[in-house]
Structures are given as structure tokens and as C-alpha cells.
Amino acid sequence: MNDCDTLKLKPLGLKSACANCSVLELCLPLGLNDTEVKRLDDLIVQRVKIKKGNTLYRQGDPLHALYAVRLGFFKTTLTSEDGREQVTGFQMTGEMLGMDAISEDRHACNAVALEDSEVCPIHFSQLERLSRDLPSLQHNLNKLLMSREIVRDHSLLLMMGNMNSDERLAAFFLNLSQRLSLRGYSPFNFILRMRREEIGSYLGLRLETISRGIARLRELNLLEVHAREVKILDPIGLKALIAGCGQHGNPL
Amino acid sequence: MNDCDTLKLKPLGLKSACANCSVLELCLPLGLNDTEVKRLDDLIVQRVKIKKGNTLYRQGDPLHALYAVRLGFFKTTLTSEDGREQVTGFQMTGEMLGMDAISEDRHACNAVALEDSEVCPIHFSQLERLSRDLPSLQHNLNKLLMSREIVRDHSLLLMMGNMNSDERLAAFFLNLSQRLSLRGYSPFNFILRMRREEIGSYLGLRLETISRGIARLRELNLLEVHAREVKILDPIGLKALIAGCGQHGNPL
DNA sequence: CGGTTCGTTGAAACCAATCAATCCTCGTGG
DNA sequence: CCACGAGGATTGATTGGTTTCAACGAACCG
Predict the structure, then answer these.
(1) Residues A224 and A168 in one domain
(2) Is the residue at A156 inside a domain?
(3) In this structure, are B124 and B167 located in the same domain?
(4) Which DSSP helix (H) or strand (E) runs through B220?
(5) A189-191 sheet: strands from edge to edge
């Protein structure tokens, strides 16, 4: 989440490329030497391509692997018996997917590609075994993979409890902007990979409310949105909007 | 979360008591032998008493230890710059506290005792070191401590997005009931340790709405509440109320 | 026995959900 | 290349649930 960006998205050779892609969230504080990185590298069997709209794993699937998103964009969802779905998160290049399964050894949610994507599976039991040899890996596994999710969810919870629709939207756009920036993309111009309905589900709002919210933010000259193209005009203004809503650090 | 209850709340001797208390959420699937339990036991330095209203740790505090609630009741909160607080969870006897700090090495929230309580600190770095020797401990550390939180938060999120006030309240009472039952207490008669305002904060509602919601549930003959005394009259009815709200497994 | 904190209840305002109509965009096929 | 269709997005009008403001009652404590 810090200087990891440096070795972020360099185009790379075939195999050892994974050491840079999948480990994006692990590499930074590892202090691994080359041999160790190599061993980590060996865990990644091969990349897997997922077509837009296809499912990487489903609720209830046994845990085979964690996934590092090498390229693309995913949503995670919960499906209720009656078939309705709730979006629980969006994952972009360089983020991890699948930790929801560690607790029960089967996935707690579905992961669906919102555009053509590519992931690097990391066999979990092998990762655990390896981390026994590499204490710093173990520590980072604990730190980065899991607890971070907890903190993230907590701020989301906080948001759901305290923010009105416009504030949630502002926080949503800022969060996307921030994560894109961290990965070397423009924080000011980007494309939404999801529909209004999915944003709404994620934020606990209806799609119409998302539409109206965008309209209001536009009227405040905070951003421009044409269909799925977003242009952030006034990040400071957006931050001001959500300030004092009980949110800390990173909005999400 | 399963048969762990068996060795739940036996009154115990002085030191090795901890093996039963703190490990409540770890013990079950460990497959540890006595020697190993002993080693785990040694991690617990000593119990700490926390008076009602006092703080176990604060947002920003460096991570020293995880805490097993030996006795009592806690809330975890996030405090915003302007001083308002958001309740993110309630922890009762036999539950873990402090995992929020693993990601950043400092606590992401405050933990406040809602009644006179007692916790067993578990030194985290020692726990990590020990888990290197005991693979099954490591696996359970990963599984139970962390990922479970994620699942829990996800259902909470889902709740916040999809349920109305009465459904949230019903889910809240059912969840308390369930957890108490698991710990050997009556699932039908219990005392609320928190104020209406704290319930509201947790559920993303105002305290007045909590009041009115309780009144409505009472009129449906689902439960009785006098001040902080709760009597669940119709758990089936409560479940029915929240059915089809997109919730799965355990309500929370 | 006052004072304070907590809980309940009422009335009005407000915000998001809902229902519904229309528009836009993009991909497909004629 | 254009027409068409379908899904997605916008906008309007209305409804309903929750918040807000406010007053009051109950419990607790010094």
C-alpha cells in the first residue's frame, strides 16, 4: 500500500512475472531475498483467464487457492436463496481475491469478472507451508491478506451507518480514484467497470439513487460522468463532502 | 463455534485455566496434545481486569496483544475527528478482541468494557512464533481469528444494505441469543449490556428507531423487553421476519 | 430528593425507495 | 451504413420509512 508501487506494473517476462504481479500486496515489507521470492514464485502454477461476466469461484466452492488479480476487474457478491445478489466488493489489478474462504474452507461469496481478466492462483495450503519456512512471509500473510479486509469492512460499515447517498457516492469515487492512482493509473479519469445497479448494491442504495447522486455531484462541479467515463474535477471538494461523517483514513 | 462449547465455562484453577478461556475459539479443531496446549498456555501472561466504562485499547494504540474475553462484555468503536463514535461490534465471554490491529500494527478501533470484565492478553508476536512450530495452530490462527471476522462483517454489511429497522433489530436479538446459547447461557432470557444508542449506532439507526422497533416487535408478540431485560418469546417468528432479506447462515 | 442519564412517545420533515416513462448507448443484423 | 432491439441510465411523481426535534417518564446515584 506504500512504495510497493515502484515495481508495480512493469511488463515482464513469462514466468517470474508473477513475483511482481501476484505479490503486489505481499512483496513490499517482506524483506525476501531472491531465492525466497523464487520459492514464492513457484507457488503460482499458471495464470488463468476469466472472460467478462464469468465466475472465478462461487459461494460454497471449496477453497483451492487465493487469487491475485493480474489484470482486470472483479466484483464479489453474496446470493440469497431467493436469487437476489448483494455486491460486497470490487477488486482491481493487484488486489487479492478469495480470502473469504479461509474461515470455512469454502468460499463465502462469488467472484465475477466485470471485464476480461487474468488471475494468478496461489495454492493456499502451499502458501501456509511455505510461510512456515519464511517467518516474514507468515507475518505479512497475517497482516496484509486478512486483517486489512477487516479494517476495510469496518470503514464500509461506518459509511453505511453514517453517510447519506451523496456522501457514499463521493466516498466510492474517491476510493476508486485512490486505488487506481496507487496502481499507476490516472486518479482523475477512469472508466467504471460496473453498472449503476452494482454500485447501488455495494453502497446499499437503489440504482436510481446512484443516478441522482451523480447528477447532484455534477451540479456541485465535483465530477463529470458520461455513461461509464468518470472525470474527477474536485477531489478536495469530494473529500470535504464526506468529512465529518465518521470516516477515517481511506474512504471506502 | 461447534462442539467447543463442551469445555466452555468450567470454573478452573489459576493458571492453566487460560487454556480453556482464551483458547475458546482456537481450541476446538486444534488437535493439540497436552504439551502443546501447555505451550499455548504459557503465552498468557496474566489476566487483566477492566472496569465498566474503561478502555482496553484505543484507536492508534500499538498492537501488544490479542485479547480473549474471559468474562464480561465489550463494544468496539471507531471515533471520528469530531468526536462522534460508531459502534462496530460487541464481544462477549469467549470471544477475541484486537484482531483489528494486525494489519497496521496498531489498533483500528477502541475496545470499551460495557460491564466489569476480565481478559487474557495473548502476545501476538509470540503467538506467531509458536504457530511456526505448531502447524495446526497456524492454520487455525488463520482460519478462526481472522477470516471469520470477514465473513461476519460481510453479513453485517448485507444487513445494512438490505434490511429495514425491524429486521435489523430482529437479527440483532437473534444473534445475541445465539451467541449466548453457544456459551451456555439461556438464549431466551438475557440482559442487554449496551444502551439503545449503542445498538442504534451498531445497526445504523437512531436510538429512537430502536425504541420504536422494540415496541413493534413486542406488539407482534415476538419478544418482551423491559429496560435491558430481554425475553425472546418467538425465535421462529423472529427468524421469519428476517428471512428473505438476503441473509445467510448466521444473522448478525 | 434533586439531578442526570436513559428510554419512550408524538408530530413533522426529509431522504431514499418505488413505480413508471423516456432516453441513451451499443451491439447486431439487415 | 443504417435500423433496430435490448439493456442500461436518467428523470419525474409519489410513497413510505427513518430521522429529527421535542416533550415526557423512569431509573439511578450522589
Answers:
(1) yes
(2) no
(3) no
(4) none
(5) A189-191, A229-232, A223-226
Contact flag B156-A156 (C-beta cutoff 8 Å)? no
Q: 3-class DSSP state for residue A156? A: helix
pLDDT, tens digit, for every residue of B183-235?
889 999 999 999 999 999 999 999 999 999 999 999 999 999 999 999 999 99
Q: Is the same domain home to B75 and B124? A: yes
Q: Chain C bases under 7 Å from protein CB?
A: 6-11, 15-20, 24-26
Q: Where are the alpha helices (DSSP H) in A54-164?
A: 124-133, 135-140, 148-162
H or E element: which one contains A89?
strand A85-92
Do B200 and B81 share a structural domain? no
A93 touches A193 (CB < 8 A): no
The answer to whether residue B14 is domain-embedded is: yes
pLDDT digits (tens, 9 = 90+) for A38-52: 777 777 778 899 999
* Crossing angle between the packed helical segments B148-162 and B165-182, to the nearest 10 degrees: 150
Q: Which of B211, B84, B252 is nearest to A163 (CA)?
A: B84
Measured between CA atoms, the residue of chain A closest to residue B138 is A128
Rg value, chain A, Cα: 18
We report the CATH number of the domain holding residue A194 as: 1.10.10.10
User: Is the whole model's pTM more than 0.90, yes or no?
Assistant: no
Q: Closest Cα partner for A160 from B190, B179, B161, B98? A: B161
Q: Which domain holds residue B107?
A: 3-133
For the CA atoms of B137, B141, B145, B147, what is the dihedral angle to 10 degrees?
Answer: -130
CA atoms within 13 A on the CB side of A143: 22
Domain end point (choices B116, B133, B150): B133
Instruction: Give how far Cα A80 sits from Cα of A97, A201, B118, Å.
Output: 21, 13, 39
Q: Measure A230 CA to C24 C1' (Å).
A: 17
